[in-house]
Amino acid sequence: MEKFTEDDLKKELETKEYEYGFYTDIESETFPVGLNEDIVRAISKKKEEPEWMTQWRLEAFRHWEEMIEPEWANVHYQKPDFQAISYYSAPNSKPKYDSIEDVDPELLDTFKRLGISLDEQKKLAGVAVDIVIDSVSVATTFKKTLGEKGIIFCSISEAIREHPELVKKYIGSVVPQKDNFYAALNSAVFSDGSFCYIPKGVRCPMELSTYFRINQAGTGQFERTLVIADKDSYVSYLEGCTAPSRDENQLHAAVVELIALDNAEIKYSTVQNWYPGSKDGKGGVFNFVTKRGICEKNAKISWTQVETGSAVTWKYPSCILKGDNSIGEFYSIAVTNNYQQADTGTKMIHLGKNTRSTIISKGISAGKSQNSYRGLVKISPNADNARNFSQCDSLLMGNNCGAHTFPYIEAKNKTAQIEHEATTSKIGEDQIFYCNQRGINTEKAIALIVNGFSKEVLNKLPMEFAVEAQKLLEISLEGSVG
Amino acid sequence: MNLKDKLLSSYIAFEDHLEDDSPLHDLRSEAIKTFEVNGFPTKKEEAWKYTSLKSLLKNDYSLFPKLDHAVEFKDVKKYFLHDIDTYKIVFVDGVYSSFLSETTHDKLDVCLMSSALSKSKYKPVIEAYFNKVAKEDSLTSLNTAFAKEGAYINIPKHQEVDKPIEIIYFSTGNEAALLLQPRNLIVVGENAHVQIIERHQCLSDNAVLTNAVTEVFTEKRAVVDYYKIQNDCRTASLIDNTFISQERESNCSVHTFSFGGNITRNNLNFYQKGEHCDSTLKGITILEDKQHVDHNTLVHHIAPNCESHQNYKGIFDDASTGVFNGKIIVSKEAQKTNAFQQNNNILISDKATINAKPQLEIFADDVKCSHGCTIGQFDEDALFYLRSRGIAKKEAQALLMYAFANTVLESVKIPELKARINKLIATKIGVNLGFDI
């Protein structure tokens, strides 16, 4: 039997280069570098936005100017120079296409290499894809089917133009402009993103998905996503990312807001695979994301994330359980390798009565990476019978990485029931021996064990996405996830 | 003048009175500088996020109380573990009381910090151990700057101490408000065994703030059992900083029983410097009214093949607040570490609050580390079961509380102390079960 030890795997992981690192040559229209009020105005003008939106952005910008970059996260990196970034870039091939055949063939090729075959998805998966490449939507499918149900699924700039009443009512309602440094920055300069509205009583018939990519050298990506599920509705939303190989650090500061009105349910799944930097820690994407959802009565928000990429990740998808009987869920796998650093987790804010939340977080660290879980469970005095269960498990591969947990638990109600548990371990030699004994080679055994370790979370992904998730996990832990 | 300024100016006067010009002098000036720069911790600091000292700092504390505060033994007898014979080191308002104490120099040293600091025969020990494991945070530094009196215990090699050692700090309340800064040094030699009970007790309703620092060194194969009884009156606050440095195969356990006091902050730090160490940190906290107890623990696994066990239980009534901030750090070299941490809490009242922050920071891969934290209520089914068998609600609740706390209590190795704590718990929850558990 071939001898494949954990050390070999480690070596292989370290030497494994980012597979999806390529660069599509599309002529882009890019703004000059730097950030000031004029740039904010220019972005707003470029997007043909109404005056209130421009003012909203400017307000955010003014807050941002007074804020300082947070340093509490357990990550270390060279702070980006915000005046050396270009805040807008859009593919030049305008106007928009009506059908897929009109799309720039080079772009289509890009998607194929990403493993996103539009036609295949059209036929097989029934997924409507709103593809974002460098901040502007270029292809939208299944829009008509969705339109018949009254579902609005479009880019946020389009929504600002065509559904201003909805945008105006909800944008910034969950993540205010001055929520934090990166949210403020995003509010000021967001270039595009997705907007989704599910009307009352409608169950969205298909998984909605968008793919984000950073493409143009030196451009940051500031996505803004707003998902509104009206009363009694249901939607499952997918988001996936890959990014081309770059030497310089790229900044990604997205904001996602979810609003689940009474009895609504939103399922939000993410597979994130931004460029993690080279194996000696050079380059890579900075991923500073603010994701938050609010649940009204009996509503449910479920976050599922598979984080494999980015040099630095700073991400806490949270739920505000405002309505009685509302439910928040968070399922996460975070894989870090080489010099990657991840500080990720969730906040569950229990405000309503009988609210429930579940947190399952799995961290896998390899190479010289640092992987932290940081979470907050807060039970306010009025949240009678609140219930929380948290579990954070870490798996360490090799002796140069670190796994950390920073859970905060604050209970102010006597009827609260909170459980938190965390474990840290490595793949046991006995486990591998057990597999070897049964004729499973070490590589497969590790795959089996890691897969089992992550299963609880992988199971929560929609089926269409699970394939993609596995593919991306493979890049980070090549050969170990089967 | 605020307290910080007062302390800084008193330091100059304090230092003039000291006779020693030993290396301690540099240590003190270094320490007061640290305090001057950092001041008292505020809620902005991550480690003090849930505990505010603000309400304590506004008192006008006297720093150097008058010397003649006699205490009658009959008045304070109940605070001693009087059923059995013990060594006693007793302080009244920060001053050693030879009348109440029972010290020894026979085979082992159970005596005073002041004499250890001044007499030349103790010099090697002081130089080797004093302030060697204490962290240089603001409050510990403040204590170091004013370090003068406290307990000094030195157990030589292979010595099994025949009876427990009690360290008791009384405050008489003759001053309107008193700030005490006792400093304890405990050195336990190779293969030696010792049991220590520490207690701070206020005898009146005047405000007392104690900022205590204790350093414990356990040499090879030493066994140390340390018990902290915190059942002070409601005007007394305590900041207890304990630092324990363990050498290989040593075994150290610290039990903290927090029932009384106004604001209590326990900074308990373990450093496992040799292989095969075992550390145990246990605590029972039962609070009511507006009491506030903050357990801030750190177990730093530096050497491989060590174990640590933490188990803290809390029951919170009225508007009390409990904080548990437990941190386990496993260094890269500390392979084969087993570290466990458990924190269970019960909230009885609507106004009670619990803030828990159990943290793991792990840099080694071949380890087994886990932490668990729960917040909940009494099991309704269990309560019903007991009541259906004719046990009144209050007693049934008490029984459940005992059961809840028992995992901590069962490892108390001094039977008389165990009985005492049982009694304290019974008084605290206001029942008499009529039998011993």
Strand and helix layout:
The complex is a heterodimer of chains A (482) and B (437).
Chain A: H1 6-15, E1 28-30, H2 37-46, H3 51-66, E2 89-91, H4 105-113, H5 118-125, E3 128-133, E4 136-140, H6 143-148, E5 152-155, H7 156-162, H8 164-170, H9 181-189, E6 194-198, E7 208-213, E8 224-229, E9 234-242, E10 250-252, E11 255-260, E12 265-273, E13 285-295, E14 300-307, E15 312-315, E16 318-321, E17 327-336, E18 341-344, E19 347-350, E20 356-365, E21 370-379, E22 387-396, E23 402-411, E24 417-426, H10 429-437, H11 442-458, H12 463-476
Parallel strand pairs in A: 3-7, 6-8, 7-9, 8-11, 9-12, 10-13, 11-13, 12-14, 13-15, 13-16, 14-17, 15-18, 16-19, 17-20, 18-21, 19-21, 20-22, 21-23, 22-24
Antiparallel strand pairs in A: 1-2, 3-4, 5-6
Helix pairs in contact in A: 2-3, 3-9, 7-8, 10-11
Chain B: H1 3-17, H2 23-38, H3 54-57, H4 73-76, E1 87-92, E2 95-96, E3 109-112, H5 113-118, H6 123-129, H7 138-146, E4 151-155, E5 165-171, E6 177-180, E7 183-188, E8 193-202, E9 207-218, E10 223-230, E11 236-246, E12 251-258, E13 263-272, E14 278-287, E15 292-301, E16 307-316, E17 321-330, E18 338-347, E19 353-356, E20 359-362, E21 368-376, H8 380-388, H9 393-409, H10 415-429
Parallel strand pairs in B: 1-5, 4-7, 5-8, 6-9, 7-9, 8-10, 9-11, 10-12, 11-13, 12-14, 13-15, 14-16, 15-17, 16-18, 17-19, 17-20, 18-21
Antiparallel strand pairs in B: 1-2, 3-4
Helix pairs in contact in B: 2-7, 8-9
